[in-house]
Amino acid sequence: MSDSEEEESPDRQLKLVVLGDGTTGKTSLATRFAQETFGKQYKQTIGLDFFLKRIVLPGNLNVTLQVWDVGGQTIGGKMLDKYIYGAQGILLVYDITNGQSFDNLEDWYNVVKKVNEESETQPLVALVGNKIDLEHMRTVKVDKHQRFCQENNFSSHFVSAKTGDSVFLCFQRIAADILGIKLNKAELEQSQVQQKSLRGATLCMQLERECWKATA
């Protein structure tokens, strides 16, 4: 391949910043996506955590997602503007069982708007309701979520970082929307199947390791 051909089809990099209150599952969401793991013990993010994950979008486009996981206590901090600056995508994350975490997203979004008020290009903002595995404990109604999306032109997502449900799909859709790539139904279904297969393979590997330890 010539140098000119390489220049025509470079890998893309996108900066995604995950914002929201503490305990909403932001770090669990990022680690589930980037590492296919879920930590049962809550550990507060101090300042910033950083994750990298490469995905492939239609057209065989390689996209590296830089996921900036911002600690919930940083909303009044001096570094928050710097964390947000230059992001192509913002994930506003709340816990569907915690109404206050949803209400506080207004404050997080106000910071995003302030950082980008003079920018020529605005980041794509996604509203992410986490912990759908606790649907029976939901306090934030779906229509309230959808209304917030419509009022602010957010994309809408519901996920479970614990089970992995729709996590990869959420990040895939956000990346595709930023790059102006339309995902058809078959591609969305295929990504779900691939992730289920990957989770199954990961579980098998973990079981094999445990069996090996037991017999060693």
From TrEMBL:
Its EC number(s):
3.6.5.2
Q: In the record, what terms sit under GO molecular function?
A: G protein activity; GTP binding; metal ion binding
Q: Does the keyword Repeat apply?
A: no
**Which coenzymes or cofactors are required?**
Mg(2+)
Per UniProt, the keywords (alphabetical) are: Acetylation, Cell membrane, Cell projection, Cytoplasm, Cytoskeleton, GTP-binding, Hydrolase, Lipoprotein, Magnesium, Membrane, Metal-binding, Methylation, Nucleotide-binding, Nucleus, Phosphoprotein, Prenylation
What reaction is this protein's catalytic activity?
GTP + H2O = GDP + phosphate + H(+)
Its subcellular locations are: Cell membrane; Cytoplasm, Cytoskeleton, Cilium basal body; Nucleus
Task: Give the GO cellular component terms, alphabetically.
Answer: nucleus; plasma membrane
Q: Which domain of life is it from?
A: Eukaryota
> What Pfam families does this protein map onto?
Ras
As for membrane topology, the entry says: Lipid-anchor
Similarity comment: Belongs to the small GTPase superfamily. Rab family.
- Which function does this protein serve? The small GTPases Rab are key regulators of intracellular membrane trafficking, from the formation of transport vesicles to their fusion with membranes. Rabs cycle between an inactive GDP-bound form and an active GTP-bound form that is able to recruit to membranes different sets of downstream effectors directly responsible for vesicle formation, movement, tethering and fusion. RAB28 is required for shedding and phagocytosis of cone cell outer segments (OS) discs in the retina. Also participates in nuclear factor kappa-B p65/RELA nuclear transport in endothelial cells.
Entries under NCBIfam families matching the protein: small_GTP
Tell me the protein's name. Ras-related protein Rab-28
Give the source species: Falco tinnunculus
Q: What is the lineage of its organism?
A: Eukaryota, Metazoa, Chordata, Craniata, Vertebrata
